[in-house]
Design a protein that fits this description.
By secondary structure, the protein is an alpha+beta fold. The chain folds into 3 domains: 191 residues, Heat Shock Protein 90, CATH 3.30.565.10; 131 residues, Ribosomal Protein S5, domain 2; 208 residues, formyl-coa transferase, domain 3. The chain has 18 helices and 23 strands. Strand 4 and strand 5 form a beta hairpin. It is globular and about 95 Å long. The structure holds adenosine-5'-diphosphate and magnesium ion (MG). Adenosine-5'-diphosphate binds next to helix 2 and helix 4.
């Protein structure tokens, strides 16, 4: 007798569960996707013990017929796909017919559902994949699935779960992000009866983002207006014989891609990618290509190894993206990857260039946020934040494992569900200020404060003071002086500015070098005496790879015997003592990054290194004319927000914050 056997469905389901169900959040993801596929407009999720003891998802979607309710637990049972052709144009989130049987095989599951086509509903109960009962049930249209004791029969999996806080943070983050992808739907998430998220339907992504993040995070975000880019596909190859038969000329095929979303400015710097959320055709995915496109957009705006917050929605024809790559459907493959990559990178970069968000001088929190004695709860007690920021904060930090005795309970209900601070306090300023109405969030009243009018009237302000949240005010700055011979203090129409003279100059030079390099007209200084450098074997190798680029960027270098380099000319502005340092720094960068970096990135790194060395140092007294020149040149930079290494250039203490700090508003 042969040795190969067909595995029973139960074993096969458990194997599939290994891939599909990693943790409570994966159950939530699958069930939430099913609810959305069923056309629900309201979804409520209840969890107990961070989802280990119970996860219940109730929706008002189409519901299931009695027969379907039983069939859904069979392997590969799906209503979303019938033919292999359908795989090329999947419009639903699910299609593999794997989730329900997989989840049922590693938990005790109760499905309660009713379709509008039947008078009664159905209850189906399973444990460890075995059917326990199937009964009639009276209930409204829709579906409720309760998953209890996850992994009760897979102890090995259970051990891999992290702390309650971590698991709950994953669940919270997942629900939050699906809620962002569907602003027109209601989402509720409760943990042991405590509300963690509750968002009502709104009409735009911006309003939903405001509901979810509250005003403080929202202020850091830049709106990526919807953009489309069309890809013209080459006409398909038609063999000669067929070509003759064809009478109609073929239309050139095109594919349209669309991107929208929200992204933080370069001053928001996260240490990992956990705050980047990518949706491709409504599906939450992780994708290396798109991640790279985002990093490329922030190249020279943020230090390497730092990541922004991003919420990006890419939509395209379903034929342009293969979603059937991974059992958990979290990976995709694009048909025209490099086109998508460049579109994403350019969209983000151009938006940042337009908006030029500015870093604010951090203010102390309005009220102190002491943790209640003995409670050590991690939930925020300050107004203006929602628990979401906590989910993301926990997922952000590398150290998310908190001691297990930490409770998830907030001291009181109010602290857990603070009111969202909606608008900047409005005051009457002469002349009348036209302030755009704040986004209305249902169920929450705008936050307003009365001004006690006992300290004289407000300073006379130009109408911009409320609105200018960008570097637009840069050209009109009036320098007031230098602080510690390092920072320029300036008055702007929207507040007080502090500018780091070194990084400002660095940005100016960086853009200048890139401009000159692009035009092929580098300003060069000939050295009276060539500088001779001794290279190691590794440096010699790197040098030979970047020699051309060096020579196009204003250096004139020549090998000069064994592992020796003669430098005869260098970019103008570099002190002779710095030339050697610049070259060694570049060789070092080349060694670390060259293999993965594109030519454009190397060029930028080279420009950044030259700029850094040639820029005015801190602790340098500047003549007023030089300060004026620096501010003017900075204002005309393409991207005056951060230095090429990602440090902020300018901090602004906005008039609004000044007024607030003096309790005038
Ligand atoms: P898939 O989503 O890949 O089709 P699942 O195992 O997740 O596979 O679900 C199996 C089937 O059960 C779905 O195709 C759908 O018909 C039905 N179903 C699951 N959840 C729901 C729900 N919340 N409302 C209506 N139908 C559902
Ligand atoms: Mg599904």
């Amino acid at each position: 007798m042969g040795r190969i056997r067909i595995l029973s469905d139960n074993v096969a389901n458990k194997i599939a569960a290994g891939e599909v169900v990693e943790r409570p959040a994966s159950v939530v993801k699958e069930l939430l996707e099913n609810s959305l596929d069923a056309g629900s407009t309201e979804v409520r999720i209840d969890a107990e013990n961070a989802g280990r003891r119970l996860l219940r998802i109730a929706d008002n979607g189409s519901g299931m017929l009695r027969d379907d309710a039983l069939l859904a637990f069979e392997r590969h049972a799906t209503s979303k796909l019938s033919d292999v052709k359908d795989l090329l144009a999947i419009a639903t989130l699910g299609f593999r017919g794997e989730a329900l049987p997989s989840i049922a095989s590693v938990s005790r599951l109760l499905l309660e559902t009713r379709s509008s086509d039947e008078q009664t509903g159905t209850a189906v109960e399973l444990a460890g994949g075995k059917l326990l009962r199937c009964d009639e049930l009276a209930r409204p249209i829709g579906t409720t699935i309760s998953v209890r004791d996850l992994f009760f029969n897979v102890p090995a999996r259970k051990k891999f779960l992290r702390s309650d806080q971590t698991e709950l943070a994953h669940v919270g983050s997942l629900v939050t992000h699906y809620s962002l992808a569907h602003p027109d739907k209601r989402f509720e998430l409760y943990h042991e009866g405590r509300e963690l998220l509750h968002v009502t339907p709104v009409s735009t992504l911006k309003e939903r983002a405001f509901q979810v993040f509250g005003s403080s995070t929202f202020d850091d975000l830049v709106d990526l207006e919807p953009r489309t880019r069309e890809l013209r596909l080459p006409p398909p190859y038609v063999p000669h014989a067929q070509h003759q038969e064809q009478t109609e000329p073929r239309e050139p095929e095109t594919a349209e891609f669309r991107i929208e979303g929200l992204v933080s400015g370069p001053h928001v710097q996260k240490l990992n990618r956990n705050s980047i959320f990518l949706f491709v055709n409504g599906r939450l995915i992780r994708d290396k290509l798109l991640m790279h496109a985002i990093s490329a957009a922030f190249h020279n705006l943020m230090p390497p190894g730092c990541y922004p917050f991003a919420l990006l929605f890419l939509n395209c024809d379903s034929g342009e993206v293969d979603v059937n790559v991974h059992p958990a459907k979290t990976e995709v493959r694009f048909r025209h990857g490099s086109f998508v990559h460049d579109f994403m990178r350019d969209t983000i970069r151009e938006t940042l260039m337009q908006h030029r968000p500015v870093s604010a001088i951090p203010l102390p929190p309005e009220s102190p946020m002491p943790l209640r004695e003995g409670s050590r709860s991690f939930l925020p007690q300050a107004a203006g934040t929602l628990p979401f920021s906590e989910f993301s904060r926990m997922l952000d930090s590398q150290v998310i494992e908190l001691p297990s005795d930490l409770t998830l309970t907030a001291p009181n209900q109010e602290a857990m569900l603070p009111e969202v601070e909606l608008v900047t306090p409005r005051i009457a300023v002469e002349p009348a200020v036209a302030v755009e109405p704040p986004p209305r969030v249902e169920g929450r009243e705008p936050f307003t404060k009365r001004i006690p009018d006992t300290h004289g009237s407000l300073p006379h302000l130009s109408p911009e003071w409320e609105r200018v949240d960008t570097l637009a005010a840069l050209p009109d700055l009036r320098p007031l002086g230098q602080l510690h011979e390092s920072f320029i203090i300036a008055a702007g129409r929207d507040g007080l500015w502090i500018i780091d003279q070194h990084v400002a100059h660095e940005r100016i030079l960086f853009e200048q070098v890139l401009r000159q390099r692009a035009a092929g007209r580098m300003e060069v200084q000939q050295l009276l005496m060539p500088i001779v450098l001794q290279l190691s074997a590794g440096q010699q190798f790197e040098y030979s790879r970047i020699a051309d680029e060096l020579n196009s960027t204003g250096f004139e270098t020549e090998p000069f015997g064994q592992r020796t380099l003669a430098v005869k000319a260098a970019p103008a502005g570099l002190h002779s003592g710095d030339i050697e340092k610049v070259l060694f720094e570049i060789l070092e960068i080349a060694e670390k990054e060259l293999r993965s970096a594109t030519l454009d990135e190397i060029r930028r790194d080279l420009a950044a290194t030259i700029a850094c060395r040639a820029a005015i140092k801190i602790n340098t007294r500047l003549e007023p004319t030089k300060v004026e020149w620096l501010l003017r040149s900075l204002a005309s930079c393409e991207y005056p927000m951060t230095c090429p290494h990602g440090r902020p250039i300018a901090l602004r203490y906005s008039t609004k914050d000044i007024l607030r700090s003096f309790h005038r508003i």
